[in-house]
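R.M. (postdoc): so does anyone remember the format we settled on? I'll just put the structure tokens first.
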């Protein structure tokens, strides 16, 4: 899930899926739900977001961060090892 705020239009788009939106439905003034071809909710568009939401605070509860953090930790460790290998071989100075 991605939260995308666009200050020039004061809109917040919440990406719920990587799937393409094929249908949209305005459910209240300035709030549009986007659906994919199978009818699944893929995004939420909120116009005048700063008037409708507290954009200064994001609170999450019971999100399984542990699995994601483990994966990011493995990726980071691999990148660190690759960087160290480049430095020790002298290739880093040539890049």
């Amino acid at each position: 899930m991605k939260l995308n705020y666009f200050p020039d239009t004061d809109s917040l788009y919440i990406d719920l899926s990587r799937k393409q939106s094929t249908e949209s439905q305005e459910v209240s003034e300035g709030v549009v739900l986007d659906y994919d071809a199978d009818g699944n909710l893929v995004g939420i568009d909120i116009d005048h977001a700063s008037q409708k939401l507290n954009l200064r605070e994001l609170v999450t509860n019971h999100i399984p961060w542990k699995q994601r953090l483990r994966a990011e930790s493995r990726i980071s460790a691999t990148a660190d090892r690759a960087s160290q290998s480049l430095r020790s071989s002298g290739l880093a100075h040539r890049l």
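R.M.: ...and that's the designed sequence above, right after the tokens. Also worth knowing: Helices lie at 49-52, 65-89, 91-94. The chain is about 35% helix and 30% strand.
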